[in-house]
Amino acid sequence: MGALKVPEGMRPYIDRFDIYMGQPFSRRTNCAIISFGDVLTVNFASSIIEADVERYFFRKLVQDGIHVRIESNRDRMED
What we know:
Strand order of the largest sheet: 1-2-3
Distance between the termini: 30 Å
Radius of gyration: 14 Å
Strand content: 15-25%
Largest sheet: 3 strands, mixed
């Protein structure tokens, strides 16, 4: 989606936007990214049990000094 803009009067009522994707039909991981203000949201959807792609992606961001907050509907991913 990229950078999302809303009318100025709505800005005080919105913290962030998310994109919710359905589970892919094939064995792959999908990713959607959207930003609003200074918040970038990265959403993953996968039919794969392992979360290696997501783990490597967020570890790289942290290694680069980017603050990351992870929210998930999966069981806690082990390191």
